[in-house]
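Subject: design request, 371 residues
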């Protein structure tokens, strides 16, 4: 069963029932799910996990799905936390772990979010849905929509990697290529969705993708025996992972499963598209639209994010920082990590290693505010 009680706006606190099909709050901000954690605490204990499925659905009580008949799962989550001794040693770190999200069903952590979003969409009667994607989200969405029997429409920038385009089509989704960036794709969906009857599954424009992504936080805690690391360094595009993990840690603390030691959340972006880094450096509460976004890391090419203020909040509350790295630095890390750890990073993943090379966190020291 689920201990979800309602959905609430992250900015104005307006509340909504779980029975409603929701996108953004009328005030324009993302909606987040709330749980009755005091009640959950009485029956949901660490040992409840012992005989559970090896997927993110093991945290069933802290997921928003109401009825398990609507669960759309391909075995997402429970990815390994690899001890990266060589790579970490080379960077002067005492310990370094890599959460290998490539081991998800369609090859990226987008599956976590889309398993939840599509399950909830099905539960609330959605028959047609649309998503903008510059990379992995499209294929993941198409796979889960296929399994749910939901008609899927994907809008991608014309220069999206061809592998991502083919994947979308093979899963039976309708693909449209757009001359522009992911924001332009999102705008087209917003314009057409009412007439077409599409449910919009854009990042943070519905409340459930972030609920799937937050399970990375639960898993990291569980895999490290409920002692969180000092720093989590994470690539941020739309920000669901960063926002979701920070939410997860708050929930685990309220459940009493972890103590108050929380990681510093470090956001990594590409130098050619770094709106969050800029806003962080300028002490702003929200980010400006990044002009002429350019980077080979398509997952990081997000010039404006509706959850920008939530990312900035999580980074600041945690004592973290925001760093940007160049495309050439990302590319240089790919063979290094592949040769030392046997892990073949995408440019986005490699960006985290490049950021670590430029900024080595020393435990206990305060993080620099600029990169
Ligand atoms: C989607 C994606 C990102 C951005 O993830 P968010 O959690 O939405 O910020 C980064 N890297 C890759 C490879 C992605 O597919
Ligand atoms: Zn609101």
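Subject: RE: design request

Done. Sequence follows.
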């Amino acid at each position: 069963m689920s201990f979800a009680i309602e959905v609430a706006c992250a900015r104005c606190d307006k509340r909504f029932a779980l029975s409603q099909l929701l996108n953004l709050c009328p005030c324009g901000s993302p909606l987040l799910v709330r749980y009755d954690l005091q009640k959950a605490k009485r029956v949901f204990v660490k040992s409840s996990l012992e005989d559970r499925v090896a997927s993110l659905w093991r945290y069933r009580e802290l997921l928003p799905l109401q009825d398990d008949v609507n669960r759309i799962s391909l075995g997402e989550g429970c990815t390994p936390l690899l001890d990266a001794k060589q790579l970490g040693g080379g960077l002067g770190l005492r310990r370094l772990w890599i959460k290998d999200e490539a081991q998800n069903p369609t090859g990226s952590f987008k599956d976590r979010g889309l398993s939840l979003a599509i399950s909830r969409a099905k539960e609330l009667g959605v028959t047609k849905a649309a998503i903008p994607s510059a990379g992995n989200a499209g294929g993941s969405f198409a796979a889960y929509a296929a399994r749910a029997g939901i008609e899927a429409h994907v809008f991608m920038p014309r220069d999206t990697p061809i592998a991502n385009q083919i994947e979308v089509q093979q899963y039976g989704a309708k693909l449209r290529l757009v001359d522009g960036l992911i924001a332009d794709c999102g705008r087209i969906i917003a314009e057409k969705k009412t007439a077409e009857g599409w449910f919009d599954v854009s990042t943070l424009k519905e409340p459930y993708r972030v609920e799937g992504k937050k399970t990375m936080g639960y898993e990291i805690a569980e895999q490290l025996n409920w002692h969180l690391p000092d720093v989590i360094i994470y690539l941020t595009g739309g920000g669901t992972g960063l926002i979701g993990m920070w939410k997860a840690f708050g929930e685990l603390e309220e459940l009493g499963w972890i103590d108050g030691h929380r990681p510093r959340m470090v956001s990594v972006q590409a130098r050619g598209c770094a709106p969050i880094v800029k806003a962080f450096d300028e002490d702003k509460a929200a980010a400006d639209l990044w002009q002429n976004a350019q980077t080979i890391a398509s997952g990081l090419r997000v010039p404006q994010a509706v959850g920008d203020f939530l990312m900035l909040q999580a980074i600041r509350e945690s004592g973290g920082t925001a760093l940007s790295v160049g495309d050439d630095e990302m590319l240089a890390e790919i063979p290094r990590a592949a040769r030392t750890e046997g892990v073949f990073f995408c440019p986005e993943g490699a960006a985290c290693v490049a950021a670590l090379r430029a900024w080595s966190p020393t435990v206990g020291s305060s993080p620099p505010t600029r990169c």
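The first strand starts at residue 4 and ends at 9.
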